[in-house]
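Protocol step 4 of 6: structure prediction from sequence.
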Amino acid sequence: MEVQILRLIEGAKRAEGLTVIIDVFRAFSLECYLYDRGAALIHPVGSIEEARALKAARPEYVLIGERHGKKCDGFDFGNSPSTVPAEAVRGRTVVHTTSAGTQGIINAQRAEEIVTGSLVNAAAVAAYIQERRPGKVSLVCMGNEGVRPAPEDELCAEYIKSILDGTPLPDVQERAFAMKDRGGEHFFDPRNQEVFPEADFWACVQCDKFPFVLRVRRENGLLTSEIIPEK
């Protein structure tokens, strides 16, 4: 199995084989929490306009998304796992757009298969890859807004690759918590709590909290991120 680690939007464009689009803070951590809270389906989209068009056609959909971290105007929720209650998404379809994570999905045109990745389900992603046995794996660290590397995504990719290599990182949880002072500082700034609440940090660094994988499929031009249950 050939495993490559790629980065940012340009990395997503080059990704081949079974591709893992990684966004720890916060897109794909959030999607795991949404499914855990009972969301029926999640449609990742690239643009705010597409999200609004889907909402206009299906008013019952829930709009979740951000630009520069801030909730998009007119959306139901921002990209924040600590602020979306279960009762708001249970049994409902979510439309999700972000500055980094969903952009990676949109740009991974050469991928044979796409799954999303975050620390909260990294071991499950690695196990899924081992089960699929692809010839090539691309781990894409989406970073900050898809243009600047981010340590949390690098750690997630390193952790997944370490499992695939048969030498799992023994200190991944410790290193994840340490990002409080090494990449996660914005979650602890009192001036930023409306946009980056501290609770989001702790939600996103709970390694292997969820035993499931989110796989992306395209049908009739619409992308869907769907849960693959634990076997």
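Step 5 (inspection) to follow. The longest strand covers residues 111-117.
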